Q: What sequence folds into this?
């Protein structure tokens, strides 16, 4: 009854209790079984251990499709120092117990996601003198359920699942760390690291060997280690059309929704609950395709395991997934006030209705979708579609429209604007010149350019080593390849800074490298990057009012014109005292950037900087054909400048309150306005060719101090800005 069968063509199989359940991902069949360490090498339980696969080992990172992503950010450090000892150590208080690992059978061929052949209707067959109901999906997998001679299913619910490893893999859906603990022990025992996961070998092999020796673990002891496993498959996701990988992603979210809160990055990568997540993933997938005109994917941090983090941790990256989502939100979902009113600060709750209505216009849904549509049995009214309610079956259509327009435009800005093009180019040259012949150097290289999750493992491993050093009473612990890899990463940062200074400023003199680093401490903030993207959005809103209106398909060309204009600005007087490549830096003569904080809501002030750069005649000529009526631009620029000046006055007032506490509040405010005005006038004259006469004319005609913009600013400064999902 429990044999492998007499004439089957599938080598790998599991057997156990069969079951079925329904999820938002669809119908799921499963077999409850177990994986084992030790014992007969060909036993199904031992083979199951070897068959469990983290996503990172069955998908080529270079072929990663973010819409097929399940989970890739394994914490190898936690597995090595906590889970493996827990499995191997014989505690007198009782046996180690792991909750069941959940694995899903998915179609892969040559590490690329594919689809299963259609699962045929069940037939009755005899195997090992026992009757079974058999269903087969071509040469990919086969299912058996125990039946009575009359064809009725047996109440024992016994089942078997066979699969062909050349066409299918058991991907760990839940319990990936538990599964990796088993795999690490199994691969070390069988000396099979070279067959799978070779790059992760340094994290585990020495640790496992040391623990096996320290705990005096025998083959007999290992045979006692059994871990429950639930092997699942989607019987309805076979044949064409089917989307088993999308169903697996949905199941992953469903299985983990009550678990420890996932990181913000993972939510964006996995969840289909928001259309903005789907659109953000389409940006990452476009970068994965490695188009020559786009920044490389390794310049974007998208795997940060920390919860509620919005700032990149790696020094090598230029931006992160949170900035991409904010760009999607501001350009596509708005709401419109943030793009049309340049005196509007960011903060407070946003109307879902306003956001969804703006998205309809930004993606021109009228030309894309019918008024009424059916999606998997659900009826949709086009006017009701929004960020939280949209037809999943049309998600690809929506993403394509986004990528043809706003998505392409956003990537053009982040890829071609001079500072970001320089960062990406220097990072690529830095990568190509990296010697990876030594194990620790290869690990460090992988942490920045390849393996998702490796960086965090190295970081945690180094922290663990430092704790061991502090607590050691004997000789200093030996540095492993993991520790040497982290040391390499720290040493390489200075080398990268040199590459970037050469690419951006054409010099590697120490003072230039230092000033370049300070400049990029600004360029690589969310506030600066989102300000640039919001400038695109605001200028497009202005273009809508120009004669002839707009055509959505022109957005990428408009973004190209903007980049050409900005790059003209950055190239002006390059290498001289007034080198515009330092214009946004705070470490320069007469800096326009007086912003004391770089929080994301301050993007509205950086939008002003980006727009001010366009007003120089030599720069404006590149966008003049797009904005024929310059008066609209000048009016918006004036509002943006007033908003920024209000911020500068408020900051000066706060500084004076500390430095001159006895000064009368009225006098203090008057002095703050005078100082802020002087600083802004000098900066505009020096960097942006605004004459004192033009500046005073603007002041005379601008909104008076105490305007609604200033009141909004005061509210923003008086509390911590609570960013809603659209921020």
A:
């Amino acid at each position: 009854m429990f044999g492998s069968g007499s004439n089957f063509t599938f080598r790998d199989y599991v057997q156990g209790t069969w079951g079925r359940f329904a999820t938002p991902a669809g119908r799921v069949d499963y077999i409850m079984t177990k994986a084992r360490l030790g014992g007969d090498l060909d036993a199904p339980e031992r083979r199951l251990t070897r068959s469990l696969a983290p996503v990172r080992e069955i998908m080529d990172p270079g072929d990663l499709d973010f819409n097929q992503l399940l989970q890739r950010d394994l914490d190898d450090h936690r597995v090595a120092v906590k889970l493996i000892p827990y499995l191997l150590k014989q505690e007198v208080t009782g046996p180690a117990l792991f909750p069941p690992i959940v694995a899903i059978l998915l179609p892969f061929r040559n590490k690329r996601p594919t689809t299963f052949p259609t699962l045929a209707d069940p037939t009755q067959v005899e195997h090992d003198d026992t009757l079974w109901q058999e269903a087969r999906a071509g040469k990919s997998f086969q299912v058996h359920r125990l039946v009575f001679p009359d064809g009725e299913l047996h109440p024992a619910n016994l089942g078997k699942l066979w699969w062909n490893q050349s066409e299918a893999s058991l991907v760990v859906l839940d319990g990936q760390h538990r599964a990796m603990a088993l795999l690490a022990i199994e691969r070390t025992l069988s000396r099979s690291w070279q067959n799978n996961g070779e790059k992760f070998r340094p994290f585990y092999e020495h640790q496992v060997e040391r623990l096996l020796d320290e705990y005096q673990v025998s083959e007999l002891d290992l045979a006692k280690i059994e871990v429950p496993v639930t092997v699942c498959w989607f019987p309805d996701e076979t044949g064409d059309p089917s989307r088993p990988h999308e169903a697996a992603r949905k199941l992953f979210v469903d299985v983990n929704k009550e678990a420890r809160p996932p990181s913000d990055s993972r939510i964006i990568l996995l969840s289909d609950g928001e259309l903005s997540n789907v659109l953000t993933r389409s940006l990452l997938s476009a970068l994965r395709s490695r188009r020559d005109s786009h920044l490389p994917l390794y310049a974007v941090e998208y795997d940060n395991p920390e919860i509620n983090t919005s700032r990149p941790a790696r020094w090598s990256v230029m931006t992160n997934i949170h900035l991409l989502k904010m760009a999607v939100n501001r350009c596509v979902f708005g709401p419109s006030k943030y793009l049309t009113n340049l005196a509007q600060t960011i903060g407070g709750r946003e109307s879902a209705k306003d956001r969804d209505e703006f998205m309809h216009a930004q993606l021109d849904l009228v030309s894309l979708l019918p008024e009424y549509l059916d999606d998997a049995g659900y009826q949709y009214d086009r006017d009701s579609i929004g960020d939280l309610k949209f037809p999943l079956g049309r998600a690809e259509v929506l993403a394509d429209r986004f990528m043809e327009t706003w998505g392409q435009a956003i990537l053009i800005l982040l890829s071609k604007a001079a500072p970001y093009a320089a960062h990406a180019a220097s990072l690529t040259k830095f990568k190509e010149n990296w010697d990876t012949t030594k194990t620790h150097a290869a690990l460090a290289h992988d942490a920045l350019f390849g393996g998702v999750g490796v960086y965090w493992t190295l970081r945690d491993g180094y922290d663990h080593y430092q704790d061991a050093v502090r607590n050691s009473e004997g000789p200093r612990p030996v540095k492993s390849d993991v520790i040497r890899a982290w040391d390499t990463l720290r040493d390489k940062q200075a080398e990268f800074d040199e590459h970037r200074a050469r690419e951006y400023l054409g010099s590697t003199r120490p003072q230039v490298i230092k000033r370049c680093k300070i400049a990029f401490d600004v360029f690589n903030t969310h506030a600066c990057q989102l300000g640039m993207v919001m400038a695109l959005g605001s200028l497009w809103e202005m273009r809508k009012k120009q004669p002839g209106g707009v055509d959505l398909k022109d957005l990428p060309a408009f973004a190209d014109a903007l980049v050409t204009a900005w790059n003209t600005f950055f190239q002006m007087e390059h290498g001289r005292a007034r080198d515009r490549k330092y214009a946004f830096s705070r470490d320069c003569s007469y800096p326009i950037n007086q912003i004391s904080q770089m929080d994301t809501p301050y993007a509205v002030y950086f939008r002003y900087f980006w727009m001010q750069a366009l007003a120089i005649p030599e720069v404006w000529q590149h966008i003049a054909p797009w904005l024929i009526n310059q008066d609209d631009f000048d009016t918006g620029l004036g509002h943006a400048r007033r908003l920024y000046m209000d911020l500068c006055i408020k900051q000066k007032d706060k500084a004076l309150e500390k430095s001159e506490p006895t000064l009368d509040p009225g006098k203090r405010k008057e002095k703050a306005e005078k100082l802020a005005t002087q600083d802004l006038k000098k900066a505009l004259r020096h960097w942006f060719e605004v004459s004192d006469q033009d500046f005073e004319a603007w002041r005379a005609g601008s909104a008076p101090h105490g305007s609604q913009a200033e009141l909004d600013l005061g509210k923003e400064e008086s509390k911590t800005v609570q960013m809603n999902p659209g921020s």
